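Standup notes
- DV: blocked on the single-chain target, sequence here:
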Amino acid sequence: MKPSLQLKIGPGLRLTPQLQQAIRLLQLSNLELHTEIQEALDSNMMLELDENDAEEPSNEQAADGNGEEIELKEALESDAIPDELPVDTAWEDIYDGNSGTGAARPSAATDYKCLEHADKRERTLYEHLHWQLNLIPTTETDRAIAVAIIDAIDDDGYLGCSLEDIRASLGAGLDGLEIGADEVEATLHLVQAMEPTGVGARNLQECLRLQLAQCPAELPWLAQAKALVEKHLPLLAAHDYTKLLRRMKLAREELQEVIALIQSMHPRPGAQVHDSQIQYIVPDVYVKKEAGAWKVALNHEVIPQLHINAGYAGMIRRADDSADNNCMKAHLQEARWFIKSLQSRSETLLRVAGAIVERQRAFLDYGEEAMRPLVLHDIAAALGLHESTISRATTRKYLHTPRGIFELKYFFSSQVSMELGGACSSTAIRALIKKLVNAEPPAKPLSDSKIAALLAQQGIQVARRTVAKYREALRIPPSNERKALL
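- DV (later): unblocked, structure below
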């Protein structure tokens, strides 16, 4: 048989570039969408932001554009254009005429804002310790040892390697002599004297010891706290208060005061310096109750309003096949599709949020314990959309409710069958576990088996392993670590 080429015609699905653009815009967060819109404004001459205070002609008038084109041509060919365009401010309003440099003298408030926002870069613990080291007069050898010690300190403020390893990494000193272990130990004490207190410690016991040493001597229960940290810290970590009472020879109320003083220390001193920048969440959708019903509305401040530039659209000539005219036609078509994709994104997001709110009204009225089980298929079937579309529309999109701001993904949860029929969402079960733990006696916390038994009394059959998984997801420690001395 000889190989040959054949053409076959058959139906198939294919994503058009316009549909691909709509899908891509749908999955973007509001911050990413702002970047995408700015790139479109920079690359497409036909797009411009909608200024509310400016009266712009409609797109239909811009599409025809014959009158505007003639007027623009006449204006360009006339000699009525002035050499200098008028401005809405005077030179004296901005610059001080008496100043020798001609620059305006900013006010005190402006100076303060400039100083406040001069450096928004995050300062790390490494930089903070090096800044303090520069203020301490040291020899070159001691400085090299201190730099090596600071480099070995992790973000929590603990020394990550032994002093012997640090000494071995330094080798010989500047004078050719080998650096001694006592010299490294003395330099470590120098670093441990820096802020924050407790930095450079090799373990938790040393960290607490350094912090207690900085407390004033007249502080109540300071001596007992130092003794507990020095001799009985493993018992405190194991919450073995019975042995602590016997070995410390203190009353229960006195031991409480000692433990409270130790707990006021910082177990991770480096976290006090490592202050990350605050990330603000801007909601995409608002929901509020009006006349007894929950209403959903888009946050229009998140999405800038775009429209077609009437001036450039009016320059397009329908019968002109020049390269410039075809380029403007292509830009106009791309701009229309981009605006249409933005509108489609807003409509889909509003529909999905409305369907979620409709099914989670009990959560909005009563809280997490009333959360209903919900999956992507439920919303997709109700709106006639694909589950992937619902997933894109709910990823990194936030809903502002009277109970707080939640990601739309938060309202989806699996279901657990109840003994008397029906189902309960996993979010509601986690809320019940959190409620039970908050109400437990501190001296006798509830175990995972006991929590499962209490949930079974409410008709919710949950295994102990499931309770442990939900408890860990809530960042609740096990019962032996929740035990408190009362």
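- Follow-up: The longest helix spans residues 323-359.
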